[in-house]
Amino acid sequence: MPQPGELRVSLAKEAAAASATHNQARPLVARKVEGDFELTVRITHTPPDAKELTVVGRGAPDASAGIALHSADDPKTTLVLLARQCQEDGTWVSRFSMFSRHGNGKKGSDGGTADEKLIVQPVYLRRNRRGEEFTCAKSLDGKTWSSMFGTAQNLPGVGAVVVGPVAVHNTNTKYDVTFDEYTLTSPAEKKK
């Protein structure tokens, strides 16, 4: 039974999508946000448990959860931040990835960081917006944060955005994920 403030998602095998569509993922529960914000969520998920796992579409098996946002005025402009469980050479590993797509339909910058082993504990993701600059961070305890991808993603003139949790997978089995400790706040003004 979900706890208050918890979102449990079970994506059926019929919901599988080719991993190439990550940059088009839409929030499961969305909220329109004007101006600067900080969004944090804790994600609990494990790779799909199937003896004979096959991929729907292309690529290696992948089950991902995170934060998606898109422009309120132009849904083709997207930023998707994911904690991914990926299979490489028959072994599950954890990756953190960011996918973007610009309103002109062109793919933006994609980035990823690999962890040496599969992370089997909850992970935290954070997305910040300051003006036209979007940054992201990860944490294993919700207290100590490390910046992801080194630089901010810029979305000039994007205006209001629609943000929320997202889950995608590309396998022939179901994928379960829980989002909790979800907070969406306006950051405090920087001191001069």
Provide a quick synopsis of the model:
The chain has 192 residues and is mainly β. The chain contains no helices and 13 strands. The protein has a single domain (7-185), classed as Jelly Rolls, CATH 2.60.120.
Structure description:
The protein is mainly β and 192 residues long. It has a single domain, classed as Jelly Rolls, CATH 2.60.120. Helices cover 0% and strands 48% of the residues. It contains no helices and 13 strands. The chain has strands spanning 7-11, 31-33, 37-45, 62-71, 78-88, 91-101, 111-114, 123-130, 133-139, 146-147, 153-154, 161-169, 175-185. The strands form 2 sheets. Strands 1, 3, 8, 9, 10, 11 and 13 form a 7-stranded antiparallel beta sheet that branches. A 6-stranded antiparallel beta sheet has the order 2-12-4-5-6-7, with no helix packed on it. The chain is globular.
Outline the fold blueprint.
Elements lengths: L6 E5 L19 E3 L3 E9 L16 E10 L6 E11 L2 E11 L9 E4 L8 E8 L2 E7 L6 E2 L5 E2 L6 E9 L5 E11 L7
Antiparallel strand pairs: 1-13, 2-12, 3-8, 3-13, 4-5, 4-12, 5-6, 6-7, 8-9, 9-10, 9-11
Structural classification: mainly beta
Return the string of H and E elements.
EEEEEEEEEEEEE
The share of residues in helices is: under 10%
Tell me the fraction of residues in β-strands, as a range.
over 45%
Q: Indicate the CATH class.
A: Mainly Beta
CATH topology: Jelly Rolls
Termini Cα gap: 47 Å
**Largest sheet: number of strands, sense, barrel closure:** 7 strands, antiparallel
Low-confidence stretches: none
What Rg, in angstroms, do the CA atoms define? 16 Å
Backbone shape:
globular
